[in-house]
Every structure is written in structure tokens, then in C-alpha cells.
Amino acid sequence: MPEPSPAPAPSADRRRPLIPLRSEDVPAVEPVHYRVHHLTSYRYAKPVSRNYGRAHVEPRATPHQRVLSHEVVVDPAPARLTAHTDFYGNSSTYLLVDTAHDQLEVHSHARVSVAERRYPLEPMSRPWELCTPEHWGPLMPGSSLDFVHPSPRIPEGTAAREISAEVFTPGRAIGECLADLTALIHHDFTYDSGATTVTSTLDEVLAARHGVCQDFSHVGVAAARAAGLAARYVSGYLRTAPSAGGALGTEPAGEMIGSAASHAWLSVLVPGTGWVDIDPTNRTFVDQRFVTTAWGRDYADVPPLKGIVVGPPGATSTLKVAVGVVPEAPEPPLGESPA
User: Fold this and answer.
1) For a tag on the chain, would you pick the N or C end, based on fewer CB atoms within 10 A?
2) In this protein, which residues make up the domain named Transglutaminase-like (predicted)?
3) Domain span including residue 189
4) Same domain membership, residue 238 and residue 135
5) Structure confidence at residue 126 as a pLDDT band (50, 70, 90)
6) Tens-digit pLDDT profile for residues 36-90
7) In CATH, what number is assigned to the domain containing residue 255?
8) Are residues 216 and 286 in the same domain?
9) Global confidence as pTM
């Protein structure tokens, strides 16, 4: 095993987030229970006759998250509302409204329990070169290879290779690499909700250095894949109620960037501990403030809502999105009464 090279010292304005490592000295943290509401509302300038849609709004079960309940409510009442599970285990909802309407509302109501994430020291300390597929071993799911290769929104040959070369230097520990990648994107890119759209390309984002969480996640995934690592795009939500303090001392208390709508981050596969999630938008490793809905190769696999509208010419629409992720008291064990 090669000796890890010393990590470059971060500049004062590119501080790396702390890596959440397991330790006997750190007491376990109880899961956080959330009530989640996601509203997507369209208003049409003229009545439309039909709406087809597919929504990725249901939180999914993960090693760190339990889904206690979920319901999708559509207004007007849909003629069809069905669930589907895709190749990566994401649940989506298909809807069809076939009566004339000038407004469409899609409500997602869920209750989830989110556990703490901490990683063992040994896997996070190994050189990143030992996290590429040739070192995975026979027990790693073959589907993980999908996240090594280019995808429709994250092609090969972009300027993300330069970011990758700066972060993934020879022999460096994978945990340090992921912390530095998080800090680099957070510092070098400016959050600007008007700078890009869902159709903006990765090259456009890399050139402008402006964008939103979706864009920053694509940059991070591209950089990790350029090093030969498996990286996936993750969609979900952020806690909307201000928290008592920043995660692991990395950020001040309060509301995080991207908490008013759907959020996105990325996840990198580290053998020995599994997928490690980082959020460049907020310069943090993903923690109990995050609720996961779906993951895929890039945004195109898991948009919150996409569809087709049938209507007269000039039936333009205005979109409103509102998200609430609010902590609630956990339910008492069966047979006990709340205090």
C-alpha cells in the first residue's frame, strides 16, 4: 500500500468540513423524525385538457433513513395514480389528469426518521486509488458500475478533470479528498438561482462558475468519476426549520441554502463503509438535516416532477414549489403514552 501523501493545507477561505468518523468518545445521537410536505403547483394561462406526469417525491428507505408513511395527493383528482420502482430502487408516482383544468397541484406528504451518519476511520483513511472498481471485491453490486461511467448530463472530457486532478492527488486519503472536493466547489462556485436552468450543460456551469445545487452536484460527480470512482447524483430535501447548531461545527445555526425547494448533493462509493454523501452547496458531509428521495446517474434520472401537458396554444404556465421539512416528536413505543 503506498504511503498517503500529505494533504495540502486548505486556505483560510476554503475550509474543509470535518469528516464524521465513528468514535467511542462521541455518544450516539438519536434519530430525528420529520414531517415532510412538498407542493408543486402549476397555474395555466388557459385551461388545459390533459396532464401526464411522473414525480420522484417519495423518500426512500436507506441504511440511515426509515420511511414511516407517505402519500401523494393530486388536485384535480387524477384518473390514474400509480407507483413504480426503478432499477436503482427509487419509487416514483405516475399521474394522469384528463379533465379540463387551469391549475395542477401535486402534494407529497411523508414522515421519516433520519439516523446519524458516521464512518469508520480505516476505509476513510485508505488512498483513494484503492476505492476504484478493481479494488471493490466480488461482493459489490454490479449496478454500482453505472456510476463510474459517463451519463447523459455528465459526459466525459469536461473541465471537471482539472478539479479532479487538484483534489485526487496520488496516495491521498479518500476522506480528505471528499472533504476537499466539498470545500473547493463551495468556495469556487457561486450559488445563483438565476444563472442556470434544468437544461444548462455541465460545460456551461464549469465556465460560468455560477449555478445551484443541481449544478454543483453534477460538478462533484464529474470530478469523482474523472478519477475512476463511482459517484451518483442524489435528490431530496433539507430541514427547513433552523437547527440548533451547524453540522459537526462546520456551519452556523440557521437555514441552509436550498431548503425552500428540492435539494441535490452527491454520493461517492468507499469500499468498507459504503456510499459517503457530501453537499458542496452547504460545505458539509450529509447528516441528519437531509432527507433522501432518490438517486441516479444524474438529474435526468430523478427529476422531482416531469411530464407532458395537452392544451391550446398560449397555455403558458407559472410554477410554484414549496417544501417543509419540520422535526416532530417521535412516536412512543407501543403500549406507552407520550410524556
Assistant:
1) C
2) 205-282
3) 119-301
4) yes
5) very high
6) 999 999 999 999 999 999 999 999 999 999 999 999 999 999 999 999 999 999 9
7) 3.10.620.30
8) yes
9) 0.89
